[in-house]
Amino acid sequence: MKNLSTIAKTVILSVCLFVGHAVMAQVSVSGTVIDGANDEPVIGASVLEIGTTNGSITDFDGNFTLSVQPGATLQISYMGYKTQEVKAVNGMRVVLHEDAEMLDEVLVVGYGVVKKNDATGSVTAIKPDDMNKGLVTNAQDMMQGKIAGVNVTSNSGKPGEGATIRIRGGSSLSASNEPLIVIDGLAMDNNGIQGVSNIMAMVNPSDIESFTVLKDASATAIYGSRASNGVIIITTKKGAAGSKPKFSYEGNVSMSNLVKRIETLSGNDIRNYAAALNHPKSKTKFLGLYNTDWQDQIYRAGIGTDHNFNITGGTKNMPYRFSLGYTDASGVVKTDNMQRVTASMNLSPSFLDKHLTFNLNAKGMYIYNRYAAGVVGAALSMDPTLPVRGGNGKYYNGEPAEISGAYGTKMVDTDIVNQWFGGYYQRASRGNYQDKAWPYTANRNTTGNPVAALEQEKYTANSGCFVGNLEVDYKIHGFEDLRLHANFGADYSYGKSKTDISPYSFSNHYYGWQGWEQTTKYNLQFNAYAQYYKDFTDTQHFDAMVGYEWQHFYREGSRDGWGSYPIDAQDSEGNPNSLAGQMKADTRSTYEWVTENYLVSFFGRVNWTGWDQLMLTATLRGDGSSRFHKNNRWGLFPSVALGWKIKETFFKDVNWLNDWKLRLGYGITGQQEIGQGDYPYFATYYITQPHAYYPVGGENVLLDDNGKPVVDGDGLPLYYNYRPDAVNTELTWEKTTTYNAGFDFGFLNNRITGAIDYYYRLTTDLINNECNVPAGANFRNKVVSNIGSLYNQGVEFSINAVLIDRKNFKWDLGYNVTWNENRITKLNSGSDENYYVPTGGISVGTGGTIQAHKVGYSASSFYVYKAEKGVDESGNVRYNVVDINKDGQINGDDRYMSKSPMAPVTMGLQTKFQFYNFDLGITFRASLGNYVYNGVLAGTLYDVAPDNVYTQLHGGYTGLTREAYNTYWREGMKSDNMGSRIWDSELNAYKDGASFSDWFLTDYFVQKASFLRCDNITLGYSFNKNPKITGRVYVTVQNPFVITPYKGLDPEIFGGIDGNIYPRSMTSLVGVSLQF
Amino acid sequence: MKRYIKYSVFAAVLAFGLTACVQNLDVEPKDTNKVLDFNQDAIFTKCYATLALTGQQGPAGSGDVDGIDEGTSAFVRMVWELQEFPTDECWVPWNDPGLPEIRTIQWNSLNQLVQGLYYRFYFNISLCNHFLENAKADTEDHIAQIAEVRFLRALNYAYLLDMFGNVPFTEKVNADKKPQYSRTQLFEWLENELKELDAALPESRKSDFRVDRYAAKMLLARIYLNAEVYTGTARWTDAATYAKQVMDGPHKLHTQSRGGVYSPYQELFMGDNYRVAGGNDGEGLLIIYQDGIQAQCWGGSTFLVAACRDKNVYVNPATSEGWAGYRSSPQFIEKWVDLASTPSILKNEFDMPALLGDDRAILCSVLNTDLPVVEADSTAAQPLLPRGEMGGFYDSWSVLKWTGRYIENPLGEDITISPHGPQFPDTDVPFMRSAEAYLTYAEAQFRLGDAGSAKEAIQALRDRAHNTQAFEVSEQFLLDEWSREFYCEGRRRMDLVRFGQFAGPTANYHWEGRGGKKTSEGFSALDAKFNLYPIPETDITAGDLKQNEGY
Predict the structure, then answer these.
(1) What ipTM does the predicted assembly reach?
(2) How far is residue B105 CA from its own chain's centroid?
């Protein structure tokens, strides 16, 4: 399976076969190609003399002329129509019929395909909508809102950013909740590398033929171990045998703009605020005279272009497709840029009278990223009265501001900015670099200048990926019922990120920072199966498959980083420092790691179809994972599903009803993506890393690179040590049992089709790393263990309708809605009714969490204090935290399980009009009942308080958001003056208690974040005047609006904790696609 | 037939291939940062390092203890916070998770800091148990190692005895159910273990930062001193006996200033303090190593130095960190001076000792008056604290006892960072020092009715502090003197409990911020349950344990 030369030989062989054939004596034939549905000519249909590469394309009137050999057969094909083969006769008229269900007919399922009519599981296939896909830099965006039960949440608005995909809720707590992604039969490793957001990023969206989403266990169980969270199968486009080469180009130019920003107070507002607070001159002299809008300074319009070119065609035995894509996208934060080149090749030759077929896929990608420094939050908290650069000595009260040198120094800041911060304004304090030329450093307690950070901190990544696989399929000669199939695949990725921070920066002043981090990974896999088909009688069909799979995942990485003395470094006396320009050794941080895991699986499937009415599918898969101890290494994953075409049984003659099918399924899938390393059952020791040594030991003296003992400042030798790792030999598969019942239906000549499903998914033996083991029993208090269970249940409904279907006017509508409920039912680690597992860390406060897992509640529900609006003695609005448990005091026990960040209801709506050559498509997505912790508000609210807007520690004033300011002054939610309502058991009533300091952990900040988002609107015009070229031009507006009650920037936040995310922009693009 | 042969061969090849591939599942860790074999010396080093560091990477990034901020999880810091924050010695305005409940004595079994401390102890114990299960006594040094690791385990159990009481006991690392020892059982085990170690430990240190038998004697004296709390039976004579052995041992009080700038007492808490507290004759019985470069963490002396300062409390930090954490409380200041007659400006670490005639009063009553902001802003100059509700960091005096500055560094301007690393002080933590023997001896003798011996021992400490004031030994005096000598060294809760002044019906001593209900007479007594911390809820469930009474 590692024999790459096999692949190489096949490539060479394939290329040889591709060479054209000779041409002999010819006759000329002409003809017309007609669309059977409306008698209109078909323009651009391909006409090919079978057995040759000789062909033509129909013109605007559907006519073609071709010189062929006498008695030749022509193959007439056109995308979306059934291909015809007819004898070449002059003046021929060929009628093509639409093959609208071409894709729907056959569903790609695990290790094989199944006719859609015969499918028993909950499987949804979508074909990317070429007419309305908007700006898609990552394949996952194409699924957003399109499939019931599938939620795709982009992580931020950064170009090429990844997304979190959840199929029917999350089935795990700390193990992976990511679906398995299978690209052309190759199950991908979903671990990221530097510069590649997720594995789907490596498929060029325009190469995708279809997405198939397997949702229930009867469909996914064949993938066994990795399929607990559903499976997404991506099939890329292929060439067609015996067709002339067709070229197509797609390209667009886009511009992204921020339509919504967080509103901040202006410089004038801050100065007025300081005046209103009667701040003394000693404070206000730190105010500048400027009105800097820091968000204006960091944001811009992001320009992007995208070009894709491909060639599709095929000789008789060798369909082929090649594609090349280039994307250049700039984000709305200055300096943010991504450039990507993708290339793919598909060859699918067949031999021996189609008994032996090959399918060779190769895809490559190279990405260059430049990431903007994290300045989104800094732009909110930087004082707007200050200038971006310099200072010019102009200050609020007319005198130059003094920098609050930490230890009693006075310093006019213009002197500082120009010399030690690259000309940017930066608050400074007295440093101690023992360098006469650098007496100051950045005041670490203040906000760093965000504009300076964009320039002075450079983060880049270069990444490359290669995925290739070869599928071999052989129908045994003389025993054609038996088919052998093998698939060899490899996936290799490399990513290296670099950091280069200037010595003038806020973050790494004086020493600067240079570093890199890289990851290399590969995934090898081999699978083989034998499939046996048998039609016993006309009504009884049977097929069975058995197979085997082997997968190896290998990952290694390293990082290094260091600060250096500036090239002009001096000593404290002002003499040149001999170390100038050299690495400062004790800042260096370096690390290397290697890990791997294996999966070995055996699987089988039996299908039976009787009387074209009843379908039964049973699968069984056994998986061995190297992540578990020998004794619990193997998991067995069975499934069974029944399909019943009720239409065929009872309503065979009812014409308006085209389809009515019942599906019932049951199955078990497993999870071994434990997220806690690949060796949880090994008793290993972890070696000390730098800066954690101790001067006590025996033989293990720490040596430097030259083999000399490392000593501390006093000459004491240091020793390295080992720490035993936690061990869990009992850890085993997390298992999800799914029950699914659904109906598929189609009415009115299948103009209305749809499906409704109910599912219940119970996950047991939840793998979690947050639960405690008995003290003294292991080397950690929290050991990754199987700790409990949870369920998801839900209903999905989807409907597609062709509302109007006239010759020149067509209106399609698609709608889906999902209701999902997630509940934790058991946590082994705690039986107390108040027991919870804290999760959801927030950056407000220190080490706090805002969410918890608790029995009876949705996973990661908000766990908060209750804030109640009240009035104080002088009639002012005041928030009080409530003594919920009425024990007369406020403490951690007064928190309660509040809302969940997961939306119980999600919907998607797509509609498309086609009017003559114009088309208009709109897609919407809605999420109802989800909540978000407004961490941006909580993080800035503190700064509004009169005592906090100016702080000596920060050396001045801070920027404020309008929302925080209003929350404090209008809403009365005062971070420095929040009260408490304490239960007095003697009075049997609440009374006012002391002030309450954990205000940021209250439910005030858990805010309703339902939303309706318009994902995109596209207007297109298709043209076909020129018989040689057909195409379409279009304009798209992506993300034009969001309707939400949420007061933060964007309600769509996976996990429900709003920090300062990279804002999602509105993108406008103009594009063209051409086929010739 | 031929076909069957063909298939059989195919099947055989397939079967062979499959078997080989199934064996791939038997992996071995490839990571070069991991090893599979026990290395006695390396685990021995780790047993000591758990006192000083929070994990395998400095200052953080690979913590030992889960469920708590790594910087907080340090042994020194956790013990310190839970022994100091709920007491009359200091006040902390932070609102880290669980901290407000510690500060106001309202904790419960879900408290994150209580959990963090408990699991820090058990991580250390598991490590020691693992060492002791596997260590070989094949060389002289290895024999000493075994005794020292037993001592480190006993130290952790001694803190569990003091703070958690009835806890699971184990000498093995395995999944077997751990018996829950009563406080008396654990006391008896510790008494025997420490007596054995008194004999087994070396008479003098094998090397710097290791322990000798005087550490075991001191710990033994400490549990005897508290025996009445632990078991109901006082053991004053035993406490005095072992304390006396320490007093007569080689670890003498540090009485002569080494650098000539600072007092001998102050020198015990400075950047190069191991020169006076370490060694075979230094005052330290257990010195926890810290180094600004090689041994960094946020929970050792970095915490002790940084948390009591910020940019307005600039005196002598020798670290770039200033966390605005703990301050002295009014009650603590009253142990030195009458608040009503406080002098106005006590600018640095020399003014207060000079004024009070006691080197130990290393406090400072003002913010940095050199800062420009203070010129016009009357609120920033804080000559003194108001008595009443405690609020923010500036509402009381600074504690300047812990510093990163070096003993021999002259008191120059602008030394804001350590001479060594810019962020992390080098100050080692003299976690047990022989001064404790003097006060232990004094208290035990006083309880036994010998006030004269008590006074003599206390006088030795006062002489070292250059305190010439007359005093009479009383119970209250002893409780106060423990504070004057050991404030902010991580033991106050234990002393208050022993004197019946922490919680329960006898506790009539109230300090700012202390919990309990305010009544017309003052405060109602705190529930006696608070004399012990609760067993964390997580281990009540996971370890199937019985909770301490009242929780």
Answers:
(1) 0.91
(2) 19
